[in-house]
Design goal:
- The chain is mainly α and about 80 residues long.
- About 80% of the residues lie in helices and about 0% in strands.
- The chain has a domain of about 50 residues.
- The longest helix has 30 residues.
- The two termini are about 35 Å apart.
- This is AtpZ/AtpI family protein.
- Keywords: Membrane, Transmembrane, Transmembrane helix.
Length: about 80
Amino acid sequence: MNQQNQNNQNKLPKDQKGKPNKFVRFTGVALQMGLTIYAGNLLGVWLDSKYSSDKFEPSITLLAVFASMYMVIAQVIKLSKD
């Protein structure tokens, strides 16, 4: 009897089969946000060193922050519709 209860608890509804867990999706979103900001910062540092300037790093990093926020908001809206 206990084995049958465990089997019933492990079954997912048909609409959720094959979809990643929401926790996993949000972890991916956080990783994507961090990598986008880091890549923007690296690009800014490289441009600053190439053109002997000090304005590219903060500008591109800030742009990367806004871009990653936009991506996070779009993914959260998409996730809330699912």
